[in-house]
Records
---
Amino acid sequence: MKYTALTLLLLFSGIFASFAQNANNVRPLYDKKTIGEVRLTLPAAKWVDALDSMRIYGAGLLDGTAMVDGVKYENIGVRFRGDKSYQTGLKRNPFTIRLNYKNADQAHQGYTSIKLSSALRDPSMVREMLYYEIAGKYMPVPQACYTKLYINEEYIGVFVNVESIDKQYLNTHYNGASNAFFKAGIDGKPIEETSPSSSDCKQNIFGSLEYEENMECLKGNYDMISKDGWSDLQELSRVLAQDPANVEKVLDVDRALWMLALNNVMVNLHSYSGNYSVNYYLYKDNHGRFQVVPWDLNLSFGSYKNTGKGSDLELKDLMVLDPLLHSDNPFKPLIHVLLKDAYYKKVYLSHIRQIVEENFSNGLYEKRAQEFQGMIVVPYNDDRYKLYSLDDFQKSLQMTVGKRSKIPGIVELMSRRAKFLKTHPELTPLPSTVSALQVQGRGKFENAKLSAFRITANADRFPRRMLVYYRFNEKSPYQVMSMKEEDAAGLANGVKAFSALIEAPNSDDAVLHYYLMAENAGAAVFFPANYSFKPNMVKLSELNK
């Protein structure tokens, strides 16, 4: 018997989905290797009308019961969510499911909310999954997986289940959840309808972080999720506008640069980097610095095409989107102010270079996109409410889908974009290579124990300087120290040696977490490359053996 490629894919995916269902009793909520299942029982026969009414008039949630991967929860609340992705009269809208709606302690594996994305304007159904997976290599981002949704025993379709940015998320990543916390944009309100509270306020700035002397002006552009914090948000925008030399004190700049680099590479223009400065969260951590979290990514990879400069871009323009987009735009201070600094600009370009090399030039993104689609082809085909045909779903990785919206094929866009970025003049300068890294241990016949960490390393291509970022507690921000250039014999042309001495806390159990940055005339590079999650570590007790 001969099978078409589609038949084989359906058969394989059916077996995979069956296995996933058999494992529901132990399935982690955000397991990307299996497909989850949420079954809602809602009391209203016309539940779409009820949820539409609540969405339009902002009145509460609809009571119901949920089965999450086979576990039953009573007294949950349901509502439609989303701005551009929400449409009246549709069953396949994005959902928020509040497990703790009536019972504050009710949670599934610690998660109190489930947020299902309908993947609007994404015929491939992989944009959010792919963006979050790539971004998660470089900065904390929500988890995401596929989940099938049933309501009153009717199959509504396969959705992207994205981890809610809430108390659980903030405790996991920032060891706290009670500080200033904002979402850029007003939840449940179309972007175009957001407006400041007074005509004296700047107009149409959205979540750009432009400075407003009148704090009330902020309230038309951000959702405050915490109990208070407007003054903290105002201070962040003031520092960007008036005191950028001290921006590190109020913002985790490296994380912000990662988000901006990810948005640019993956053409995520429904974000701070596009027309409206929205779809990101700001949380002030326990060290007084705001952390950024990207959100709502179904329009990434060129599905939304407006940068705020002129009309929507054509595919050929998206392929060659300027990596320094908005660097000359004072109305986008997070980009303009940070990239005006020569060092931050090199760091940002280093991030772009790394994202492209590790995910796109090597074709890894295409393989992962195919794997994601292979997982869901059966439940997608079974979805009577899907917004695109199965044929469009299958073609959407390789070619543009739609005559009106013209959603770019992800490979069609990114194969050309990766080549463009690899050869862009801002990205062609070669960074230094860090080598000969050592942390000096106690000499064989030395009696006195070491009380400091002495780090040495070399860098080639005529480095101007080397920095060491270090900390002794993984919950603390890194401190930075300039390394001293050493006179060393026998080094090749262009190679320099550097050293740093970092005093240890008064404990033989001290553990140093650190990474290096080498900067030459044209570029910066970090070592190790995955310093965001796996910095170098060394114990003082090991050095003293």
Note: Residues 517 and 526 are 4 Å apart (CA to CA).
---
Amino acid sequence: MKIQWRFGFLAAFVVALFALFPQITVWTERGGDFNGVFASNDLDEPAYAAYLQALIDGRPRKNDPYSGRDETPENPQPESIFSIQFAAPYFVAIPARILGLNASQMFVGLLAIASFFTALAMFWLLAQMTEDNRLAAIGTLVIMFGGALASGNGVIREFLGGTAYPFLPFLRRYIPAVAFPFFFALFGFVWIALKSEIKRTKYVSSILAGLCFGFLVFSYFYLWTTAAAFLFALTIIWLVVRPENWKRNLPFLLLTDVIAFLFLLPYAYLLSNRAASTDAIQLLVFTHAPDLLRVPAIVCYVALLILALAIVLKFARIKQLSTIFLIAFAVVPFIVFNQQVITGRSLQPFHYEFYVVNYLVALSVVLTLTIFLKHIKLPKLYSTILLIVGISAVVWGYLEVKYTTKLLVYWNVERDEAMPISKRLVELAKENETLYGKNAVTLNLDYIQADNQPVVAPNAVLWARHQHVFAGVGWEENKTRYYQLLYYSGRDANRLRQDFKNGDIEAYMALFGWDRFNATLSVNARPLTVGEVEEEVRRYDAFYKNFSFAQAAAPTLSFVVVPKNGNWDLSNLERWYELDAGEDFGKFTLHKAKLKAAN
């Protein structure tokens, strides 16, 4: 079938236009006061942007933008989830350095570029599988805008009385956004390898599929494991359903499998050198409990039942390649949500639900409905149905981006208002790298500013929300740094106790871990007890009352960023540090700090 790319480009353009909605919203909100922040759609994006900026600045693969502790011959560092998943950030950092762009600018561009090419890859896959360009374009819109719905998230939560979240999940930058086009391209190449009658084409497609898998391996754990589940399912189903011609096509599928396995060898080596705290931080759980009733899995169970009906009605044939692919797509959720039954390990399975498997679910639904649509013999009725579905997909897409964007508007505006401070720190680092570069530690009294400062400035921070996910700072040191932050800001044990009572997310994350306040993050989430909270308050009380010069000097502060709103008690800080008069930048004051001599 001749692919008519104009349909694909049209669908991709619509997806890319909607993808820019959050950035357009920030531009509109800030107007002439806009300072250059990228509109973030996910609370984890600043950490990814900070790592990307470090690569753009020429820092090594094993870098820690929050602590400044990078890999050196004298100071080797363990692997982190960022250094292991390096392919996607380098894919962005290299052109950024060539073009002279920073991480914030690249993240803005990624909204349009990643969405465009993901939609184009999806169109290419659907066009081959359905042999209908118009249907492929409409199906692309349905899948790209319906991915959140397929997991029971997005705007549907708003309509059911909750909060619309997340924004188009596949666009979380830089993962899975950068790797997503390769994810769907892999399926397209496997399709060609099994469909083509030309041996050279089959070999080339098999190899390209394997290379796509390799990019996924070093980009995003949940993408490559989902792709691996698909390849495993497809291989088994092919052996069961079409054993008679295995010599003709199975070798090409196995070629992709072998290439995929070879990429896992260096990956396993990097993983074996991960930081000791990685498993705990990433909430690795040891369990054999099945997980059968997540929304994407349920939808696929229904899709398989409908497919079975289509086979009974002879609308589809079990040995047909499109049917085999559809079955493989539909069983992937069951595999990834239940692999722990065999492996005994579960790693935040909600990531599959939110960011990856939900799109395969939407793809399975589209392919299942296509079976019945293709049997409509009236051209006008067929065209009318496609038109209605296409318009509905666009309307739903608009609702998705509108409602999910508004949740983080305030946060994005706050981040933009903090940009002048970060830009000033960049200037100071250029003036004197030794004094004010990446090893100069900043005390940031505003949590939002702290977490976003490394996105722009090279300076280390005393504590930030995402600091502990890098390898430079272990879990216990992360807690100690949070204690120091509380101490310097004049907050005693009673204030910490009140923070817990008020549900302060930062306090819970810093001192107990993410899963202790959000049960969706782990299958074995344990709610906090009053006793645990009180014990932590007692520990901090002892820390507060026995604070010493040695603690003030480790790490030694170079800067202090103080928000102008609020009456800050800096007496504890000024006991150990001399602060200059400071420079005002919008809502913040930047002080240079000098450690006093020991008494």
Note: Residues 417-595 form one domain.
